[in-house]
């Protein structure tokens, strides 16, 4: 809920317009009413039911068929306004709110008048009936006969300005508004220099002529090489391009558009690396040099850092495989391709079991542990025995037993009272 001045209202179903609660919610307001913006518009607190309309002062109009000029509506589509009037730019030109007719497309404005620049000159809103003139403040002049400096006209031609002063470039030089009584000088920042004896690079003056510039540094191509504003201490080096930036392969390495400030590196994707300290396997870097790269599902990897199981790569070393899954024997047990989330189990056929609590006999699990096996059956060897794959009493004689006659006699003597013939 929200407040509309001092009254509560629900914005989901109501709208607050200028202190008045109305319905429905979420619609725009026009004074104290709401309206559907898809088929109406509000102009100066009045609702106009015109689809696609815009406002021209307090009236609605359709820009697809009408034009609004300075709060007046004209029945012309996409018209051009000149103040409150509409005009045709093909034959008319609007200059400072005035419409000039009978003009060409190349005409220009001089204050509120249109003129042909091939025949006239405009200076500060004033028209002069000569062509090829230039402006000096509000006045026009011919550079063939006069010179202009800071809005002042001088009767000598060919003169130039140095700040607010006029000077003859044949006899003087100007730098940063200062005049120097020697011709042929050039400017370097606020001072002058003779290009025969010095070199200027971005405002820095070097006392040697014939140097070249590398950014703001001067250098000799015999002793240095400049690559995109960077100086290298050997002349005549080749500059290569790396990501749109020049560089010298003797000092840097480029990998897929990335520049590294060391030479002799190799590339692993867009990374530079030293084979002495790292190994690259299919675009992946490992922090030990000289590792062996193996293939796993078409992707290279290092067994020192990863484990491959049936083409699947796991980001841990020392794992074992259970089918196509990698696992740690310290935490899980694998039996016939199935993983169990307990450690220390044994396998009995294709299932797991605990040797501390069970006995496995040829794929079948029995309780408890410590039993003996007779084929697929378990038995207690303290009271039973296994003969030819069958469990019998421990006192029974097995034809395959390799016992001596003395052993049989001892058995008969001990159990003769129990025998019935």
Radius of gyration: 50 Å
Oligomer: single chain
Number of E-type strands: 60
The helical percent reads: under 10%
Largest sheet: 2 strands, antiparallel
How would you describe this protein?
It is a single chain. The radius of gyration is 50 Å and the shape is flat. A hairpin with a 2-residue loop joins β7 (41-43) and β8. By secondary structure, the chain is mainly beta. It has a two-stranded antiparallel sheet with strand order 1-2. A two-stranded antiparallel ribbon has the order 3-4. Strands 5-6 form a two-stranded antiparallel sheet. The protein contains one helix and 60 strands. Helix content is 3%, strand content 43%. It has a domain at 380-421.
Descriptors:
single chain, 421 residues, mainly beta, two-stranded antiparallel ribbon, 1 helix, 60 strands, 3% helix, flat, Galaxin_dom, Galaxin-like repeats domain-containing protein, Galaxin-like
Annotate the secondary structure layout.
Layout: E1 2-4, E2 7-9, E3 15-17, E4 20-22, E5 29-30, E6 33-34, E7 41-43, E8 46-48, E9 54-56, E10 59-61, E11 67-69, E12 72-74, E13 80-82, E14 85-87, E15 92-95, E16 98-101, E17 108-110, E18 113-115, E19 121-123, E20 126-128, E21 134-136, E22 139-141, E23 147-149, E24 152-154, E25 160-162, E26 165-167, E27 173-175, E28 178-180, E29 186-188, E30 191-193, E31 199-201, E32 204-206, E33 212-214, E34 217-219, E35 225-227, E36 230-232, E37 240-242, E38 245-247, E39 253-255, E40 258-260, E41 266-268, E42 271-273, E43 279-281, E44 284-286, E45 294-296, E46 299-301, E47 307-309, E48 312-314, E49 320-322, E50 325-327, E51 333-335, E52 338-340, E53 346-348, E54 351-353, E55 359-361, E56 364-366, E57 372-374, E58 377-379, E59 384-387, E60 390-393, H1 405-415
Antiparallel strand pairs: 1-2, 3-4, 5-6, 7-8, 9-10, 11-12, 13-14, 15-16, 17-18, 19-20, 21-22, 23-24, 25-26, 27-28, 29-30, 31-32, 33-34, 35-36, 37-38, 39-40, 41-42, 43-44, 45-46, 47-48, 49-50, 51-52, 53-54, 55-56, 57-58, 59-60
InterPro entries: Ankyrin_rpt-contain_sf, Galaxin-like, Galaxin_dom
Protein name: Galaxin-like repeats domain-containing protein
Domain Galaxin-like repeats: 54-177, 186-311
